[in-house]
């Protein structure tokens, strides 16, 4: 008599995995650490301009998967496949092929420029608005904003 295989939930689609399918946080952290170490080891052997434009993404079914920032960098990385596989074998990673996918790097988030001061006219309007409030808390907030605008415009403007 054959035993039935235990019921395993199968994923449908490409959406996010459920927590049960992901395993423990410690397991995920170990895998991420191992992939990070493999990324450093493999990219270390690449020439400098290429090294900054590609990232190791995964080891899947004996296939090293890389992400390149453009098709041109992907082509250059594909030309280095033999060297990459030799490096992988030298560090004990079983891999038989290299796959390169083009995935532009996300733009670097820039902080908004907070150094642009409000004009003296804006400070005047803020003071006028503060004078019209009956709520003392709002009045104080608007006066504080007005004083910041004046201070940012000129160091002497606080002497009214």
From TrEMBL:
InterPro entries: DciA-like. It comes from the Bacteria. Pfam families: DciA. This is DciA family protein. It comes from Rhodanobacter terrae. The lineage of its organism: Bacteria, Pseudomonadati, Pseudomonadota, Gammaproteobacteria, Lysobacterales.
